[in-house]
Each structure stands twice: as C-alpha cells, then as structure tokens.
Design a protein that fits this description.
- The protein has 19 helices and 3 strands.
- Helix 5 runs parallel beside helix 8, helix 9 packs parallel to helix 11 and helix 17 packs antiparallel against helix 18.
- This is DUF2029 domain-containing protein.
- It comes from Gordonia mangrovi.
Length: about 425
C-alpha cells in the first residue's frame, strides 16, 4: 500500500508549490498590464510631455514653455533629466513609447530580483514569483505602465542604492541614486541615510552625479532659466487634482488651512520620532531593517507632507513592506496592511448607487492608506519605546560594540552622538 501511495500521492514541498502556482499567473499579469492595459493607455499620458520635451531639446527649441495652468500632465524634469531622456525622441513617438514600456517591465522584473536579494532570498526561491505577483497586482505598478511613467527606473535605482550601500560599495550606491535624482528628485530624502550611517562617499556621487549632469545640460537647453523661474515654483504648489498629499487632498475637499498645517506637522513629528528610534536602536544590530524601514518612513512623509503625492509613488514603499519577513518589522500588524491596501489597491470605489460616498472613498484611499501606514509604523515603535521604559531597559550598543547607558531611557544627560544605536538586553 505504501508503494502504491507513492505513485498516487506524490509529495511536493511548499517551496515548489508556490512557484508552480504563481509563475504562470504572474507572467500572464505582466502580459496583461504591459501589453493590453499599457497598450490601451488612459486619459493620462505621462510619456507624451516627456517625449515632446526631448524632441524640443534635440531641435534646440524651448523645453519649459508649456502652459502650466491646464490639468494635463506637464514636463517637470530638471535639465539633467532632459539630457538623460533625450534619446527617447530619436525615433517616432509610438515605437519610442513601446520601447519605454518594455524597458519599464524589465526594470520591474529586475527590481523583484533585487528586492529578493536585498532580503537574503535566492533568485530561484519562491519569494520572487510572490513579489512579481504582488507588484503587478497593485495600482502603483499598473498605472506606472498604463501612464508610461519613469517610476519603474526610480524603484530599480533605489533598490540598487540600498543593496550597494549595505555592501559598502559606496561610490556605486551614490551613482545609482544620483541617476534617479537627476531625472526625478523624489529620492532626495534618502540621502539622509548614508549621512546618518557615515558613508560619506555615497553622498559624493549621490549629489555630484545630478549636479554634473545639470552643469552639462544647462548650456545645451534653449531655456534653462525657465526651469528655475516657472517649473520650480509650480513644483512647490499643492495642486487640487491628481494629488494625494495632505495639502492636495485638503485643497480638493476644501479642508481648512489650519487643519492641513496641523496634520502636516503631526506626520513630520511622527517621522522624526520614528527615524530617531530606528537610528538609535536598530542601525547597529539590524542594518537592513533600519535602512528599509527608515526609507519607508522618509518616503511616506514626503508623499503626505510635500506639495505633490501621487498614488503610483507607492511602489517605492516595497522595501518597507518586505520587512515583514524580518523579526522586529513594523509591518507585522493588520493596520499597516490595511494602509497598504489603501495606497496600492487597483480596486475602484466609484459607485452608481452611492455616487458621493464612492467618489469620496476613491479620492481618499491613497491619502488614508499612506496615513494609516505611517501611523502603524509610528505606533509600533512608540509602544516598543514605552515598553522599554516600563521594563527598565537602559542600555544600548555603542559603535565599539559595548553596552552603554541610554540617557533617553534613564532620564539623565544628553545624547552623546555616536554612542547609542541599538537595543541591548541589559536591564537595571
């Protein structure tokens, strides 16, 4: 009977079942999002203004002269980004757009492998098809392809930056983030992390790359001063359309200015505490958890508190979500994942039966998703801090690897700067 059972009920491990199920589904989702949905396009076309700007740059025409009062997508890249994006206008716009979509899909697939590698999983593990399935089920990836946006390359550059930074390839880490900043400066807040970690060489190439590219591009553009006088002020305005930041959401729904300001201050304070706690108690003992969680905190705060936060920026939070595999992750609670649903779901809440209610849900889901995610991370860290105070945990690990008293928990003295970084198990 046992011999017969071996043929009738062949055994298969969990590590084989997951890839068997998810690889074909993920491949079909990639095809549907990139070929069908991206081919169909939508009312928003982020590629058209970029192609037009690149074409005007190659022909010596003004790049930053468009009418910024319309609600159409505008060209907002700095001169360095114009220089790097110029090759897309060498061929006709239709073929150029398809090449861009293909490269975006390849960047997303490469990002999935890099994300798995960042967290210690092999490229052939079951984690990769899970990541790809999650990627292409989200609004952030789907609309990046449908609108043909640059976000995929920003994600790839960010993950390369994180992996290289952890492995102490500082020059290359700076180059990876510097190239993304040169086109789309959304990752600028992350330069705080190598500064805190004293990896100065990352800052040299991270800041130097976009600066040098801007110096090269400036005399080549017909109207570089218009970027400073017209585009930069526009970037500082909180527009009331396609904007899920607190200010943009408040402008759309007519929220009082004082309440918008109060909410922005509240989230900044949450971020300051979270970054302080992560730096002080995780940087030396779990650098990956510190880096990935701090990255998420900085970016969510930027999306919420900044002038412009668009839903498809959420793909830059994938490393924060991936920390759920790590002990001590702030993502191991259900409110955090409810927030993830809000800012990444591809579900639509427009309703024919309850039109006003459905419209409110649809226009608020990204903002409350980011907000809930930030609150969940903050509360997780705050509760740990309060538990440490209650239980009398008073020591940290200094940079020399030795326990030292923590004034923040004992109530004495000021922080000595480099002497307190991670929780120790020594108690009073």
């Amino acid at each position: 009977m046992a011999i017969l059972d071996r043929y009738l009920h062949p055994q298969m491990t969990f590590d084989r079942i997951i890839p068997m199920v998810l690889w074909p589904i993920s491949i079909m989702m990639i095809f549907q999002r990139s070929v069908i949905l991206a081919g169909n396009g939508d009312r928003t076309d982020d590629f058209r203004p970029v192609y037009q700007a690149a074409l005007q740059f190659l022909n010596g025409q003004p790049v930053y002269a468009e009418n910024l009062d319309t609600v159409d997508p505008h060209y907002l890249y700095p001169p360095s980004g114009t220089l790097l994006m110029a090759p897309i206008a060498v061929i006709d716009p239709e073929r150029s757009r398809w090449v861009f979509i293909v490269l975006s899909v390849l960047a997303l697939i490469a990002s999935a492998f890099l994300l798995a590698k960042l967290f210690g999983f092999a490229g052939r593990s079951w984690v990769v098809p899970v990541i790809l399935f999650f990627f292409f089920s989200t609004e952030t990836v789907s609309h990046t392809l449908i609108f043909t946006n640059f976000n995929s390359f920003v994600l790839l550059g960010m993950l390369a930056f994180m992996l290289l930074m952890l492995r102490r390839h500082d020059w290359w880490a700076g180059l990876a983030i510097g190239l993304t900043v040169a086109v789309k400066p959304v990752l600028i807040p992350l330069l705080l992390l190598p500064l805190l970690n004293r990896q100065w060489r990352v800052l040299v190439t991270g800041i130097g790359t976009p600066v040098i590219l801007n110096i090269i591009a400036w005399p080549l553009i017909a109207d570089p001063n218009s970027f400073v006088t017209r585009t930069v002020p526009y970037l500082g305005e909180a527009r009331d359309y396609y904007n899920s930041s607190i200010a943009g959401n408040g402008a759309y729904f007519g929220v009082a200015d004082w309440l918008v300001l109060l909410l922005r201050i509240a989230f900044v304070l949450m971020a300051v505490f979270s970054l302080w706690f992560l730096y002080r108690y995780y940087r030396r003992t779990d650098e990956l958890l510190w880096l990935a969680t701090s990255t998420g905190v900085l970016l969510v705060t930027e999306f919420l508190v900044g002038a412009l936060g668009q839903g498809y920026y959420s793909m830059l939070l994938f490393p924060l979500l991936m920390t759920v595999f790590l002990p001590g992750s702030t993502m191991r609670n259900w409110p955090a994942w409810l927030g993830v649903y809000g800012c990444m779901t591809f579900d639509s809440y427009y309703s024919e039966e309850w039109s006003a209610f459905g419209r409110m849900l649809e226009f608020n889901k990204v903002t409350w998703g980011w907000s809930l995610l930030m609150i969940a991370v903050f509360c997780s860290l705050l509760f740990r801090y309060l538990d440490m105070r209650r239980d009398g945990v008073t020591s940290v690990i200094d940079d020399a690897g030795s326990p030292s008293a923590d004034p923040a928990l004992t109530g004495g003295g000021r922080d000595g700067g480099e002497g307190a970084d991670a929780v120790a198990t020594v108690e009073k």
